[in-house]
Amino acid sequence: MNPSSDRPKHRRRLSLESEGLLGWLFVAPSLIVIGLIIAYPLFLTVYLSFLNINLLRPKAPVKFVGLDNFIWLFTKADWFWKAFGNSVVLTFGSIALLLLVGIPVALALNRNIPGKKLIRSITILPWAVPTVVAAIMWVWAFNAELGWVNKMLVSTGIFKHGIPWLGDTKTSMLAVIIAHVWKQLPFVVLVLLAGLQSIPTELREAARVDGAGAIAEFFHVTLPGLRYVIWVIVILRTIWTFNWFDYVYLMTGGGPADSTLTLPIMVYKTNFMTFRVSQASAIAAFMMLILIILIVIFTHVQQRTAFD
Amino acid sequence: MDRKTGMRLGDVLKNFGTYLFTALFFFPIYWLLMASFVGLRDMVAHGFPLVPPSFTLESYRLFFKHPDVWNWLWNSIVVALVSTGISLVLSIPAAYALARLRFRGRELMGRLILFTYIVPSVLLLVPVFLVMTKLKLTNTLQGLILTHVTFSLPFCIWMLRGFFASIPSDLEDAGRVDGCSRLGVISRIVLPVSGPGIAAAATFTFTLSWQEYLFAFTLMSKQNMKTLPVAIAGFPAEVMDQVLWANMMASSVIATLPVFILFLYLEKYFVQGLTAGAVKG
Asked: What is the domain partition of chain A in residue ranges?
């Protein structure tokens, strides 16, 4: 083909070696930055969680306290299991609602519905809205007297009178979940759409020919075809919702009466309000453990689905 | 015949449901826009209506009279643009190396970078704050830029790696035969055909940095060093005050606008980023 294939062997080896050098040269700057701001801090979090650093007692000698911080969290800190439970409810509540809403929307966008492009654009739009702004929108939307949620519910006759969504411990979590679903739906719908487009149309047609109705087709063709995509959504959204700080914090600050207090909020509060650096690190280290478990599951699923 | 009309009716109902949902889904954004063009006085006078009773630019006028507004905008713009630039400069060679160059540890490196992308930023809050305090980088744009670059790097590398790998290697081989060096091939052949991938990575980084709250909030405590999201969160919510209302509504719209405009022009790149899992929040 070209003269290069006739070159002596050592030239090839040399070029491979320089490829190795060039490869490392190209990767090194990114590695250094990632190492400094992600890898080293992760290590530091674990390390700090075994110490007794409390910025309110800066003179106290720093010493290794073993698992004391964790024991304190699990047995003494009365908010810990409450925050853990809230995080779990928030995570799985929003994932369930996301799939419940996301699947019909993705199906509609996969059909030839008139105005498909506009609907898709609107569905993706919440991503363009900063979390801070989304939080403000929803705080006003859920306002007891002036919010549009209550206005709509009352004017359509569903509610007799408005309720203080974010001010009542019974409804605050639901309101926060609805706000989460709104913000995360773009991701879910687009991933589901990609999944739907990978289902061969012959499969659907075959099901139709066999006389399957729309419902049978959904449960026997569509849903199994989406199985892996749904797995990916569930795991990634679990990781990120479980660890999402700002949205809940900006909407409720964890209140009322700790009804929306989550573990990320406690990391922040413990570190920046009570200045117990080591205890804040212990919460983060605990969350890291959960993360590692989820990543192991994720890798397992990923290897089975070859999704990357 | 019967079955066909039945299906049509079903489709009409489904379509109607979808339209209703879409309208409701858009409502929060509509409400914010409307609220920003109606002063608090008129909102209260009409009992917080769902359709605008009047139109005024008063909120925007009041917001731009805030003494720190230009600092916030400047900080946000500089941090987002510089983060995007640095992020691209670092991620392009790294992604190219992972896609094309054969070297020891390449596979492991790719996996590690994917995992660092999954790491939620709140887990880094305590140590990064300590490190930044020690390096005296709190309340500086450099410190915030460094964290934003790091958070976007793993995803940019991962996405560009896929993009570079999809470029036919014949193209590069041809360039090599014509006597181009490796760097020559990258700058003359790979980069020119990678526009869409780079655009997707850039929109992702810009959006992440422009919207980021947690680290901007904890690292930038001085009033004049705040970024726009931090400033917005600093306005007390649900207070019936003409100026605060104006500040909050106008700043919210302004903070949404740049990404919104990017989105209108670059929707397909957003879609690429989103499907690849670009939304951590």
From this structure: 3-39, 68-305
Q: Radius of gyration over alpha carbons of chain A, in Å?
A: 25
Q: Which of A130, A268, A281 sits opposite B211 (nearest CB)?
A: A130
C-alpha atoms less than 13 angstroms from C-alpha of B267 in its C-beta half-sphere: 12
Task: Give the domain range for residue B114.
Answer: 61-275
Beta-ladder partners of A51 = A64
Right CATH for A68-305 from 1.10.3720.10, 3.60.21.10, 1.10.260.40, 3.30.590.10: 1.10.3720.10
| Residue B20 CB partners (closer than 8 Å, separation 6+) | none
Interface mutation target, options A17, A34, A185, chain B, most CBs of B under 10 Å: A34
Measured in Å, how far apart are chain B's first and last C-alpha atoms? Answer: 49
- Regarding whether B138 and B168 lie in a shared domain, the answer is yes
Distance CA B194, CA B171 (A): 13
Question: In degrees to the nearest 10, what's the CA dihedral of B124, B125, B128, B131?
Answer: -130
Residue pLDDT, tens place only, A72-89: 999 988 899 999 999 999
Q: Predicted ipTM? A: 0.89
